[in-house]
Amino acid sequence: MSENIDYAEMLEIPVNTLNVVKKKGRKKKEEDLKDRAVREVNERMEENRREEPVLNEAAPESAQERVAESEDITDYSSEPEQKPQKKFFDSRVLIAEFAAVCALVALILLTNIFMPNSAINTFFAGLTEPQETVYEDDRTYSELTLGSVVSEDIACTVTDGVLTFTGECSVYAPYGGTVQSVAETDGVYTVEIEHTASFTSVITGLSSVYWAAGDTVYSTIPVGYSDGAGEVSVRMYDGGSLISAYSVNEENDIVWNV
């Protein structure tokens, strides 16, 4: 019995071993699953690797296309083809402007030589020379206050609109104005003075005259001189008509009778 027991006990070891073997069999099955999983993964990876060259072959083409396109764009943008044309155009414009200026200068010179009174000369003369504004004095003689025509206490008379006196003295204009003319006959001078647009005076019998035609005279500055050898007369006109409505006071000032 003891032997059987011992044998039985000994059999337990193999049983346990069988159990272990069964467990190992299970582990082997598990390992087979792992191997199969690994194999499937490897197969998939191999399939992917087989497909990758096709994609890689297409990729360089697209990449090359992109590179080619970018290179074309870079080339087009970097080529300064239009700039020289623009500079050439600018130079032509400058030459045309210079030619126009030269033509204008030549035209002005020719017109100055052959047509001094042309419109273009008048225009440029107006730009370079300031024009004086001339105001016409349209006052009537009765609006003016006159003074004396003699510098000394000399008797003056008025007859039919003619003021006369005889004596050595300086002679003044009855009012300020512009000398229109100076005439001389046998050493005796006659001066015509314009005071306003309608009022003028004529002084006759002067021994000498201090002003010339075009000069401005004043009532406080002598226009001439009388040596007393002859009679001096003063006539005043309104629009060409002799003025007679005036007289002289004690100071020989001219007074209007209107």
Quick summary of this structure?
Residues 24-82 are annotated as: Disordered. Residues 28-53 have a biased composition (Basic and acidic residues). 47% of the residues lie in helices and 24% in strands.
Q: What is the tally of beta strands?
A: 13
β-strand percent reads 15-25%
Class by helix and strand content? alpha+beta
Overall radius of gyration: 65 Å
Biggest sheet record:
8 strands, antiparallel
Q: What is the residue-mean pLDDT, rounded to a whole number?
A: 77
Specify the number of helices: 3
Protein name: M23 family metallopeptidase
Keywords: Membrane, Transmembrane, Transmembrane helix
Organism: Candidatus Borkfalkia avistercoris
Explain this structure.
The protein is of the alpha+beta class and 258 residues long. 47% of the residues lie in helices and 24% in strands. The chain is built from three helices and 13 strands. The strands form three sheets. Strands 1, 2, 4, 5, 6, 8, 10 and 11 form an eight-stranded antiparallel beta sheet that branches. A three-stranded antiparallel beta sheet has the order 3-9-7, with no helix packed on it. A two-stranded antiparallel ribbon has the order 12-13. Strand 12 and strand 13 form a beta hairpin. The longest helix is centred in the first third of the chain and has 77 residues, at 2-78. The model is unreliable at 15-23, 55-59 and 67-71 (pLDDT under 50).
